[in-house]
Write a structure and sequence with these properties.
Layout lengths: L1 E5 L2 E6 L2 H5 L7 E2 L8 E3 L5 E3 L2 E5 L2 E6 L2 E4 L19 H9 L5 H11 L4 H9 L4 H11 L3 H17 L4 H13 L5 H13 L10 E3 H5 L3 H10 L8 E3 L1
Parallel strand pairs: 3-4
Antiparallel strand pairs: 1-2, 2-5, 4-5, 6-7, 7-8, 9-10
Helix pairs in contact: 3-4, 3-6, 4-5, 7-8
């Protein structure tokens, strides 16, 4: 929770809807639908009160602890020093990207992604965001941060452990392929991918990277693994 005194009145910014509900009974609405005095949800899931709503050069805007934002834009990040400024606070965006530890919403987002949920839908669900454009932007940004990568990687390892896909299993499978070479290229690539996910050897610095490392298994891949524990071709490549 963040609070700031404006004209000797305390105003509050809650980290999430869950925290807001501890102090209020009225359900908050999406910030672009709110009016002056309403409690609203930002695009990154924070909750604050609209202090003023008006128009500037024919463009509607609101003012709250997250600053003065035009309705055509997004509203997110940390509270700026000057809530009256209409310029976007780039420093707060960078601080969000550079943070070392995940917050609760980022941790939930990473778990959703690792378990096969589409990253955009995972962001919208974890952060209570209604903006697909914003969720697309920030799901991509967060999946590139070390802290969220770590959550996804750990969750994938847990999934694999629960399925019995241990390091010993992968090594035994690799040994079997080496001893029974018969055009098992797809199987070798899949095993290599799983070994990389488990950090069993350093990843090479190449122009491609496994989407699975960052975005988890797809629902189809998870289903296939759970049904038969057969490691098929589950790697796709993405140009950086």
């Amino acid at each position: 929770m963040f609070k700031k005194s404006i004209n000797k009145i305390e105003h509050y910014l809650y980290d999430s809807v869950t925290e807001y509900n501890l102090y209020h009974n009225k359900k908050p609405m999406y910030w672009k639908d709110g009016n002056e005095g309403d409690w609203v949800i930002s695009d990154d899931g924070q909750v604050c009160q609209i202090l003023k709503k008006g128009e500037m050069n024919g463009k509607p805007y609101i003012r709250c602890l997250l600053g003065t934002r035009f309705l055509q834009d997004d509203m997110d990040g940390e509270p700026p020093n000057d809530i009256y400024s209409i310029s976007r606070d780039k420093v707060s965006v960078q601080r969000r990207l550079d943070r070392d530890k995940t917050n609760t919403k980022e941790w939930i987002f990473g778990k959703y992604v690792a378990n096969g949920m589409d990253p955009v839908e995972a962001y919208k669900k974890a952060f209570s965001s209604k903006s697909t454009k914003y969720a697309t932007l920030w799901s991509q940004r967060l999946l590139k941060t070390k802290r969220v990568k770590s959550v996804v990687s750990k969750e994938i390892k847990d999934i694999m452990d629960n399925l019995g896909i241990s390091e010993d299993y992968l090594l035994e499978s690799t040994k079997h392929v080496i001893e029974n070479t018969d055009k098992d290229a797809d199987r070798v690539r899949a095993i290599r991918m799983l070994m990389e996910i488990r950090d069993m050897f350093p990843k090479q610095n190449s122009k491609t990277e496994s989407l699975t490392v960052f975005q988890g298994f797809s629902r189809e891949q998870l289903s296939a693994l759970k049904d038969s524990k057969q490691i098929g071709t589950v790697e796709t490549e993405k140009e950086r």
